[in-house]
Amino acid sequence: MSQKPILRALKGERLPVPPVWMMRQAGRYLPEYRATRARAGDFLSLCYNSELAAEVTLQPIRRYAFDAAILFADILLVPQALGADLWFVTGEGPRLSTITDAEGVAALKPVDAIHEVLHPVYETVRILSRELPPEVTLIGFAGAPWTVATYMIAGRGTPDQGPAHAMKSADRAAFMALIERIERATIEYLSAQISAGAEVIKLFDSWAGSLKGQDFDDFALAPARRIIAALTTRHPGIPVIAFPREAGPRYAGFARATGADCLALDNSVAAEWAATELQKDGCVQGNLNPRLLVTGGRELESETRRIVQAFSNGPHIFNLGHGITPDADPDNVTRMLAAIRG
Ligand code: CP3
C-alpha cells in the first residue's frame, strides 16, 4: 500500500495533518516561474518544452514541499491538438478559432491524431516521474468536455458561456458531436498521461456551474462518469479528482454518480456543509479563497485553520477554491503552510 499522503487521502484515509497543494501552484506569482517562462518565450512554448515544463512543475515543490505536483500544461492544448488555432493575448487570456456548427465539428482532426501535438506533455510527465521526490504525488489533468467546449465555441473565455449555451439550443446534434469528440480525446490524452507516470487525474470543469437541471446531468455529470469509467477500466485503481466548479447543491452525490474519488471544492462551498454532505462519499479537496494569499494577515491564518478544522473528521486534501493569482505574495503561501502543518 502506498505511503504517499495524497494517495492515502484519496483512498479515504483521514490524516492528522492534511496533505496540501495549490491550483496554479506553478505560476506568475513565483519569480522563478517568470524567469523560466521568459527563457521559453511565450506560455504555449513553455507548455510544449518538456524540460522547462518539468522545471516549472518542480519549482513550487522545491520552495514549499507541497505533497503533490501538477503537470504544467493547459486544458486548451486538447482543442489545439484537435486542430483549433490557439494563442494567448497578454493580459487578456486565450483565443481560439471558433466552432459554430456541424461543419466546424466535422473539420476537427480525428482523436487518434492528438498525440502528434501532445507527445511533449507525455515527455514532461516521464521527466517528472523520474525527478520528483518519492513522497510527492504527480497529478495529470484535462479540462472536462463542457468547459473545453465553451472555449472552442466562443473562441475565448466568456462570463456566462453564452455562445456555448446558444449552440446547445440552436444545433443540439452538432453540440453533442463536439462534446463527444472532446470526451474521446480527453480519455486518450489522460490515458497517455497515466501510462507516462501520472498517479492521479484531475478533471477541471470550471464552468460546470452554468449548466442547470438536466443539462448539468447530460454535459457535466455524464461525461465525467464516462471518462472516469474508461480510465479506471484501462488503469484500475487510478484516483480521479473532479472539479465541477460552482456546482453548488449539485456537488452532493457527484462523487458517487461519477465514480470520482475526490471532489475539489470552489470558494462558494461552505466547508461545514461539505463535511456533512460530501465527505461521507470520500475525500474532499479545498477550499481556501485565493484572495487571502494576496491580502494575508490574520484572516489568512484563521481561514486556513477553520478549513482544516471543518474537514478534520474525514479525508481531506488542503487546496484553494480556485487558482492562485499572479499578485499573490509567495510569503503568504509559507504562512498558509505554517497554519496547516503547525
Ligand atoms: O495548476 C497548475 O499549476 C498546472 C497548470 C495549469 C494551467 N492552467 C497553467 C496556466 C492548469 C491545471 C490550468 C487549467 C486551466 N487552464 C483551466 C481550468 C482551471 C481554472 O482556472 O478554472 C482553464 C479554464 C484554463 C484556460 C486558461 N489558461 C486561461 C483562461 C488562462 C488565462 C488566465 C490566466 O490566468 O492568465 C490560461 C493561462 C495559464 N494557464 C497560465 C498558467 C500558469 C498563465 C499563463 C502565463 O504564464 O502567462
Report on this model:
The protein has 342 residues and is an alpha/beta fold. Helices cover 51% and strands 13% of the residues. The protein is built from 16 helices and nine strands. Helix 11 (213-234) links the parallel strand 5 (200-205) and strand 6. Helix 4 (50-64) packs parallel to helix 7 (114-131) and helix 9 (162-170) packs across helix 10. The protein is globular and about 55 Å long. The two termini are 27 Å apart. Bound molecules: coproporphyrinogen III. Coproporphyrinogen III binds at residues 23-28, 37, 43, 70, 72, 74-76, 93-94, 141, 157, 204, 206, 323.
Average of per-residue pLDDT values = 97
Largest sheet: 7 strands, parallel
What class, by secondary structure content?
A: alpha/beta
Q: What is the CA–CA distance across the termini?
A: 27 Å
CA-atom Rg in angstroms: 19 Å
SS element count, helices: 16
Question: What is the topology, as strand order, of the major beta sheet?
Answer: 1-4-5-6-7-8-9
User: How many structural domains?
Assistant: 1
Named once each, the bound ligands are:
coproporphyrinogen III
The rough form would be described as globular
In CATH, the topology is named: TIM Barrel
Q: Examine the secondary-structure arrangement and name the CATH architecture.
A: Alpha-Beta Barrel
Estimate percent helicity.
Answer: 40-55%
**Helix-strand topology string:** HHHHEHEEHHEHHHEHEHEHEHHEH
- Share in β-strands: 5-15%
Low-confidence stretches: none
CATH top level assignment: Alpha Beta
Enzyme class: lyase
Family: Belongs to the uroporphyrinogen decarboxylase family.
Subunit structure: Homodimer.
Subcellular location: Cytoplasm
